[in-house]
Request: fold
Amino acid sequence: MRKLKHLGILCFLFIGGTLMAQNGSTMVGGAEMYPSKNIVENASQSKDHTTLVAAVKAAGLVETLQGDGPFTVFAPTNAAFEKLPSGTVETLLKPENKAKLQAVLTYHVIAGNFSANDVVAAIKEADGKATFETVSGAKLYAMMEDGKVKLKDASGNVATVTIANVNQSNGVIHVIDTVVLPGK
Reply:
């Protein structure tokens, strides 16, 4: 029987639909998300979050999301942004729409570190529909459906958390499949 050398080898476990490495990192968008790095450092490595990263840069929120936090970020994928009406992303990225872009992005952020267990506990405690105040000041609603956490925005759009508990040095990211909007 051959002995396997463990140097440089990461053992991966498939836990709850998420590929997780022994070192505590999680795979998102083909890249490892390290708990020792901040939200921007990790998101910048995900091929599934290039639109989000570009939007964070255009909105001038890089420094904020690299700060101490803690922050809970519901991070829409590129595919989530593609669901928006044609031209929406391009329009939001224009310098003259910076305030509107900031409002959309900060609607995806909650002050504090809310793990999936914390969100689920809040849903149960609120009899099935938890209300969170986002950094933008608007309300975001969370509920369970078919064993998955769903987020509902003020306009009735619903996002599903597809990857939970991507731990960061300054909070946690939960990947979502739809952009939520703060309303009009």
